Amino acid sequence: MKNIRLITKLSFSYIALCIALSVTKTVRAEDHLAFQPVKELFAAMSKHDGESMRATSTEDFQLLEHGEDWSMQRLIDAVQPKGKPYVRRNFFKQIRAREKGDMAWVSYWNKAEIRGASGLRTVVWLESAVMVKADGEWAVQLLHSTRLDPDKHPEGIKWEEFKSVKK
To answer: Is 117 among the domain residues?
Structure first.
């Protein structure tokens, strides 16, 4: 009798797992369209374009930046040159993506090469983003960003530079 109960429990667990996997779609992050607004956000940051930054995100956008809670306006203010021009190149290596209905999240490595008057500075982050779909378009609702020491990211990452095709 105990064996029958165990088999029945295992069967129900297997069925529940199959249903859960069919509802939550896991895809290779580099194939997921939900990551595009994140990349466009960083491209807009490189152009110091606050309007384009806002266009990638929801109205209630939130950035958890290395232990601080930032609004979109604070992010826009942070990327402005303030009389010290710089050029920023953005590189990504996506880790994972999950989608469920009109919500998706992506985890990824982010690297910026920032060249200013004082030379080249490289910064690396481990980040995740939550996107929501509205009117068929993905928008960034939440970013969680942790700056890393330069030697703290895995070796051998094949960084992919992103340059927006949007003007």
So the answer is: yes
